[in-house]
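Database export, one record per block. Field names are fixed; values are copied verbatim from the stored entry.
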Amino acid sequence: MSNEIVNRVANSQLKTIDLEEFYPKGNRIVLDIKPWLFHELILKENEFRAHLKNHNWEQYKNSYVALTCSSEAIIPSWAFMLISTYLTNAKKIVVGNLETLETILFSEIISKFNISEFKNKPIIIKGCANKPIPSTAYTQLINKLQPVAKSIMFGEACSTVPLFKKKN
């Protein structure tokens, strides 16, 4: 009798997806326009445009930028559009917070995700991540995989939560 340890998971058809492996590299920056508003509440177009002209836009180069206003001011849509014209070196620009930014980034990643290798296979979607993977990314991935997968589980190979099993 051999005492050799056999990795049954590695030898199975089981496919593992770790969304953290798809996490886009690059700085995430929140650009809050509150300080550019009169009394941090009112957008005065001339003053706002002056702030834009004098701002250091180079700091956003190759970064992911979330545009927001942390005051309760009502910001016209054109203001964020105007800011975007200055952020030409950013990788991605969204209006919202960091969670919104990550959600949009992962929506784009999952929409391009090739599922052909997962056809009729059992799949584990890893759940432990050190990076901020939005919950929406997991639900979008499930929706994309469910039509082709044999089964879908969540967690690690040693302890998974079954989510879906194709009915024969």
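Remark 1: DSSP finds four helices and seven strands in the chain.
Remark 2: The first strand starts at residue 15 and ends at 17.
End of record.
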